[in-house]
Each structure stands twice: as structure tokens, then as C-alpha cells.
Description:
Elements: E1 6-10, E2 15-19, E3 31-35, E4 38-41, E5 44-45, E6 53-55, E7 66-71, E8 77-80, E9 96-101, E10 108-110, E11 117-121, E12 136-140
Amino acid sequence: MAIEKFQLFRGKPNLQDFKEGATQTFNRGDIVKLSSNLVVIATGTGLGNVILGVAAADASGTTSAKIPVYVVTPEQEWRAFPKSTKKPTSFSLGVDYCIKQASAGAGHVSTGAGADVVVVAHAIKSNLGTTAGDPMLVRFDVASCKMIEG
Length: 150
């Protein structure tokens, strides 16, 4: 099983079922979006304008199959990873950063255009946070939480 790149750490799980898009291969923990009202993987850098949430299960590969998604809200805290060569401490607390996701299982917090998440802690445990690739805690920027807009 692949490491979940984004995993709910603290906050109310806003879990909703959506229909899956055609030929999807996203993994549990990947950032997903809606395309023609179907869930598909969100790819690129700076995903804030398209984020639906985080896949709660691997894609089934079946068009219109139900797929559970954690719809993101700004009060939730998520365990997330920086690029494997970056330490969480290289990201400033309280600062917006983008999410970069090129393919399934490859999403990470990055520098660059976009304000998707705010870093709230460099470590989820006292023995983590100083080594490249360690997880950190983030909150999704309010502008990234499209589903709460109504």
C-alpha cells in the first residue's frame, strides 16, 4: 500500500460520496477535484482553485462508481509531506504554500505559485520534522475549500 500523501490528522471528517471519473488511478490520500461532476485526480502546481478534497479510497477504475472523499475545510489539520528532498523546517509556519501533484501518489507541499495550504506545525511527533521527507501539519487555505462556499 502506498503512503497516503494527505491524511486527516485533526478535525471533523467531512466524508462525502461522489461518482468516479473514467479511467482513474488516484490513490487514497491524493488530492482530487470534480470534472463534469465526477471525481478525478487533480494534477499540476497550485491546485487551490480546483480542490474538492482528499480521496478516502483508491480509485476503482470504474466510471461512476461511488468514491468517498474527505471534502476539505479550513479547520481541519492534515498530515502532509514536502518534496522528499526538503525538510519540513524549510517551510515557514503560518505561510501559504502550494501543492504539487504530478500523478497518483506523488502529491506534496511545495514552493511555487499558488496558496493551497498553510503550514501549522513542522512535526507531528517530537522525533520528526528535521529530516528530509518527514511529514508536517497543514491546513487548507480558505480559498482552497471550494465546497464550503455553497
